[in-house]
Design goal:
By secondary structure, the chain is mostly helical. It has one domain. Helices cover 81% and strands 1% of the residues. The chain has 15 helices and 2 strands. Strands 1-2 form a two-stranded antiparallel sheet. A hairpin with a 2-residue loop joins strand 1 and strand 2. The chain starts with a helix and ends with a helix. About 6% of the residues have low confidence. Pfam families: 60KD_IMP.
Amino acid sequence: MINLVASCSNVPIIGDILSWLANILGYLMNWIYIFFESIGIANAGLCIIVFTFVVKAILLPLTFRQQKFSKISAIMNPEIQAIQKKYKNKKDAESVGRMQEETKLVYARYGTSPTGGCLQLVIQMPILFSLYYVIMDITKYVPSFRELTDVQMLKVNTFMGMNLSSSPWELITGDGRIIYAVLIPLIAGFAQFLSTRSMNMVTPSVNGEENPMATSMKTMTFTMPLVSTFFCFTMPAGVGLYWVASSVFQVISQLGVNKYFEKIDIKDIISKNVVKQKKKNEKKGISSKTVADASRYNTRNIPAPKDIEKNETTTTNTNTTETKKSKNTRTSGTSTSGNLASKANMVKDFNDKNKK
């Protein structure tokens, strides 16, 4: 993660955007620190926890939209997969164009778009990367920390007996405080497991078929906690603390989102999406009747995956039968032709003998 953030910062435009966002987040954390200092609690660890919760709360609407897209996607995926099955092994430009058009119409019928789940991630990623900027270098982005002496900084930077600027691995290899060292990484791994597990509840299977998104999420359920534990061992404890706070907030917010969706019918969500999409289309000069007619025309004859396989098998058998018939016809024709030629030769030989 550190290498990824560092590589992004080296790209001129992206680096400038991340630095600008980091400065804004730095001032936010500075206000949090000033508030706690005014009540006699000047601690970087507490500031990181509250800071993480505040930023995550700001991003919560985007998270909600992303989870809503996941719910709709679980219902919509069978139709998308049927279209993909329909045009399987067809690589010509016309077939590819038709597949893309029919896919767009399915998305339009559900009031969403192929980029519906990506937009939220695109917006969130720069903010999350900027968070790492602030946590990794607090003294650079938080003005109040720059004014502290080394002694004051050591006191402020100590949380639960750990120096937040040191990594757990350094604590183990340094003074051997194993219990303190493994505390944050283990909590981070467990919290990440709960966070990913709670997100799996939003991507159910439909008609007994596993949603591909749900399959990937199940894989992440076990891989992400291991990755989190490893990162938190090697990175400063402050980053690990942020990771723990972020995962805890994710679990709490995800449980709330899941409860919300349990009380709402998915059809109501789709209906609202369709109304919003209709307004967008009207602004672009596209009538809803045009979309509906095109959708019915293009997607009404899409067979189910099982029917596609049955049709493909029938077509193959038919082609094989026709090929055999064709071969038999050619063989029969050749045989008949051969018999006529032999009879003609026999007549010729008979006439030649009589002439002699």
